[in-house]
């Protein structure tokens, strides 16, 4: 919708032929965004070759853990000079690669032709054309500027950034902190807890980012604080909602069963912790989320452990 509203011709790939047909005939995607009318500039197809043909930008928005497999099939279909754009906010399990690294690894396209779009961009609000800012990041600023033009609309305001590492980490780790805040909400804890988790969550995200060569200022921008605040405040966030259900006492299996869309932090909390250990960075909130989500630690016990860590200066 954003690209079409900005004047681009968009071909949307859908896995199911019947969904592509529904999008074309009704101009809606009733399974995911009921009630939202898609602009004329969006056409759907179930044929990835048709979607990829001659594309100036190939925008990738599949779950982070399926990207590698999807791209392996799509790489031969990509237009020769296309810019690959990641909307995904996750880290690959096992390799601990960021999404742009997975894209480079599979397609062998150089980092100057790989960009990301991130920031406080809850899909439902974007689809309602509510005002939002975003970050378009690419190592090659000229490419970021081209993409900025391609997605700039009266309601969607993209800023450029060349710190791809920082922007990607901001997006992936905020999902983990969103889970933590959701768990606290579900336990009935209040806004002091939320403010503390958001701030200390941003501190551990920044520590990891700096260890990986990111610019610390990125984390006070849209890809860091901006997205963290949106995710941790909103009932529209899948990660936040997933955490709230866990905090209310639902089991992991029950929570997965009621979650219809991708909550990236559920898997990426493990890969973020993996990254932290590879870079020797302390990430206590991420570790706590892994403990609750994957090791069956009761939230009450996890909170006690987090609060009884040794006292230390704030800036360390
Ligand atoms: N929804 C948002 O508000 C939002 C905003 C910004 C970024 N993102 C990011 O976008 C990415 C995708 O999230 P989403 O909101 O579109 O999730 P979603 O669950 O709504 O949609 C994921 C899509 O991927 C498809 N899919 C699932 N498994 C697949 C597979 N094996 N191969 C190919 N396609 C598959 C699903 O059919 C679905 O169409 C995530 O990384 C998320 O963090 C989402
Ligand atoms: O629904 P979530 O938790 O995946 O969050 C969506 C977007 O990333 C918010 O910017």
TrEMBL record:
Enzyme class: oxidoreductase
EC number annotated for this UniProt entry: 1.1.1.94
Keywords: Oxidoreductase
Top-level taxon in the UniProt lineage: Bacteria
UniProt name for this protein: NAD(P)H-dependent glycerol-3-phosphate dehydrogenase
